[in-house]
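Appendix B. Raw example, untouched.
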Amino acid sequence: MSSGSIGGDKRNVADALNGIEKPWQPRRLVSINDHDVKVVKLLGEFVWHTHPDTDEMFFVHSGELTIQLRDRDVVLGPGDVFVVPAGVEHCPKAVEEVSALLFERAGTVNTGDAGGDLTSQVREM
């Protein structure tokens, strides 16, 4: 799906987020060029992982998200953006539910190189 072309489908971020029932289950909102914009709800601690070949951008829509890095924590609130560079090990954590958008290269697996029970195939809205 390409939203960058004329005639793409209009999407509403709040409506898309309201349609997500479980945390850590990203849904593709739109695609642009070779990247996906995903909506996701986050709650609890994810797994430590890397994306060896691609950056990952977090945009917090609501709540407070901590991106744990091995040398520091980055705390994001509503409207904040943070890019985890390719190959940097990280672990998102949300004490209370967070609604966020992820900007990633198409095909990026949410658990990166870690795999495991929280691995989720991205679903369409």
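End of appendix B.
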